[in-house]
Amino acid sequence: MSEAPRLAILAAQNETARAAQDALAARYGAASPEKADVIVALGGDGFMLETLHRFLGRGIPVYGMNRGSVGFLMNDYREEDLPERIAAAQAATLHPLRMRALSNGDAPVEALAINEVSLLRESRQAAKIRIIIDGKERLPELICDGILVSTPAGSTAYNLSAHGPIVPLDASLLPLTPISAFRPRRWRGALLPASAEVVFEILERDKRPVAAVADYTEVRDVARVEVREARDVSLTLLFDPDHGLSERIIAEQFTV
User: Fold this and answer.
1) All domains of the chain in start order, with CATH
2) 161 marked ligand binding residue
3) Which residues does the annotation say bind NAD(+) (predicted)?
4) pTM assigned to the model
């Protein structure tokens, strides 16, 4: 029999997650994240994103169990048979988006986004944004509250709330979704190949300031934002069989 994996058990800052952390550590032991084979994340989707960002570049898989409010990225919580569940889990490999934001002549700010990169107006004035795809202007002026580029994993999050399309995990597509578009009124966004480089140029930026957000990184008063998939960065999530991320994304499209 193969040796059980060393588990680092991390919990969100809520009583339910903390209690689960204590119970699992007492039952299975708890390694430090530096020595663990698998990270067990206890919380909701927000805590899962925090955990993935914390261990970016480590190459260590993360197995989540829902002890929060939203658990789309999490497995069901059970104390029993945790090593066996992890051993039988299906892996989902994710590539985040890399944002490069320029503003006010300062040095560019780079950040990774596991869900989406979003541009949002900062004032009562609607934003005016030019959209360039792979060096070609595709939309000279979008008047809107904002716009976002989503990963397939993030397509069921903010993107879905903004009426963007849900994208299967292996589709190699990135949804480009406007947020409350005013002009062109009938433009609903686009599906882009995962290899696309998306550039947003902010028009009338002194009058219509825009912020760019990549998960937890916000840059105010941006002038230009470049977004592309970070193929050199891989994240591994573990899911129970028949409840993998691909299945959840497909099932979400039939939820009524």
Assistant:
1) 7-94+234-252 (3.40.50.10330), 97-229 (2.60.200.30)
2) yes
3) 45-46, 115-116, 145, 153, 156-161
4) 0.90
